[in-house]
Amino acid sequence: MTYTHPLIIERDTDAPALWVGCLAAYNAGKLHGEWMQASSDTAEMFGAIEEILKVSPEPHAEEWDIMDTDNMPAEAGRTLDSAAAYVAALEGLSHHADAAEIVAAWVEWRGADEMDADKITDAYLGRFDSVEDYAAQYLDDSDALREVPDWLRPYVSTAALGRDMEINGDVYHGKNGHTFNGHA
Questions:
Q1: What is the dihedral of CA 145, 147, 153, 155, to 10 degrees?
Q2: Per-residue pLDDT tens over the stretch 19-44
Q3: Which end of the chain is more exposed for a tag (fewer CB within 10 A), N or C?
Q4: 24 touches 57 (CB < 8 A)
């Protein structure tokens, strides 16, 4: 049988994907499964999985597992619900050129259970080379040094401020420099 489900046959190789395997075949010593594109719709993904199970070499195949992921953090692909939440978060952050990196940094920090595009967007502070760079930008944006005389400003340590912000949980400086409000 040839696959007909769009998540299998029209898979974008740059999009998040899951390799779903048939457990009946696996338990019989056979490897049967297929790569499928992840979707924000769990019912759509389940339809693709049903098609994978239909062509299993084992009769009455019903059980399956996500055995690998591509273009997404492994934690985000543990279940269909987490894969759907990951794709939905990507869709919600599509206005960012590096949405996949932002969501991956979030998942690394907060885990796959808290993937929500609005929450990620609200917490996202930007991309910085270091927390020291974020602290310097924070001081500039907040105008906190307005009252400090020019001669005293060089003694203000953005490194110490950044370190304290991170230690206190005020900011999280994640993968590839993506920085989030630690109180999100």
A1: -90
A2: 999 999 999 999 999 999 999 999 99
A3: N
A4: no
Residue 35, classed as helix, strand or coil, is strand
DSSP 65: E
- For residue 181, give Cα distances in angstroms to 56, 98, 108: 47, 18, 15
Fill in the DSSP letter of residue 175.
Answer: G
pLDDT of residue 153: 86
Q: For residue 31, what are its two tokens?
A: 């490897």
Could you give the 3-state DSSP secondary structure of residue 17? strand
Domain segments of the chain: what residues?
Answer: 6-121, 123-181
Contact 123, 180 (CB under 8 A): yes
Task: Give the integer Cα–Cα distance in Å for 33 and 36.
Answer: 9
Helix (H) or strand (E) holding 110, with range, is: helix 99-110
Q: Is the pLDDT of residue 1 over 80?
A: no
CB atoms within 10 A of CB 169: 10
Tokens of 99: 């949405």
Q: What is the DSSP letter of 171?
A: E
In whole angstroms, what is the distance from residue 55 CA to residue 33 CA? 9
CATH no. for 123-181? 1.10.10
